[in-house]
Specification:
Elements lengths: L1 H8 L6 H11 L6 H11 L2
Protein backbone atom coordinates (compact mmCIF):
# COMPACT_ATOMS: atom_id res chain seq x y z
CA UNK A 1 0.00 0.00 0.00
CA UNK A 2 2.87 2.38 0.77
CA UNK A 3 4.25 1.86 -2.74
CA UNK A 4 0.88 2.72 -4.22
CA UNK A 5 0.50 5.82 -2.04
CA UNK A 6 4.00 7.00 -2.88
CA UNK A 7 3.51 6.48 -6.61
CA UNK A 8 0.15 8.23 -6.75
CA UNK A 9 1.14 11.07 -4.40
CA UNK A 10 3.93 12.10 -6.77
CA UNK A 11 1.39 12.83 -9.50
CA UNK A 12 -1.59 15.10 -10.01
CA UNK A 13 -4.80 13.67 -8.54
CA UNK A 14 -6.29 11.07 -10.85
CA UNK A 15 -9.91 10.23 -11.52
CA UNK A 16 -10.81 6.76 -10.21
CA UNK A 17 -10.71 5.10 -13.65
CA UNK A 18 -7.26 6.54 -14.37
CA UNK A 19 -6.01 5.46 -10.94
CA UNK A 20 -7.26 1.92 -11.56
CA UNK A 21 -5.59 1.87 -14.96
CA UNK A 22 -2.31 2.97 -13.36
CA UNK A 23 -2.57 0.28 -10.69
CA UNK A 24 -3.20 -2.39 -13.32
CA UNK A 25 -0.33 -1.07 -15.44
CA UNK A 26 2.01 -1.42 -12.45
CA UNK A 27 0.80 -5.00 -11.98
CA UNK A 28 -0.03 -4.49 -8.31
CA UNK A 29 -1.99 -7.27 -6.66
CA UNK A 30 -3.50 -7.56 -3.21
CA UNK A 31 -4.19 -10.63 -1.13
CA UNK A 32 -7.78 -11.79 -0.72
CA UNK A 33 -7.96 -10.50 2.85
CA UNK A 34 -7.41 -6.96 1.56
CA UNK A 35 -11.04 -6.86 0.40
CA UNK A 36 -12.31 -7.52 3.91
CA UNK A 37 -9.95 -4.88 5.35
CA UNK A 38 -11.21 -2.24 2.90
CA UNK A 39 -14.85 -3.11 3.52
CA UNK A 40 -14.33 -3.05 7.28
CA UNK A 41 -12.78 0.42 7.05
CA UNK A 42 -15.55 1.63 4.74
CA UNK A 43 -18.31 0.30 6.97
CA UNK A 44 -16.77 1.88 10.06
CA UNK A 45 -17.46 5.35 8.65
Amino acid sequence: MAILEHTLAAQEPLPPKAALAQIRKLGLRTPVEAVSMVRRDRNAR
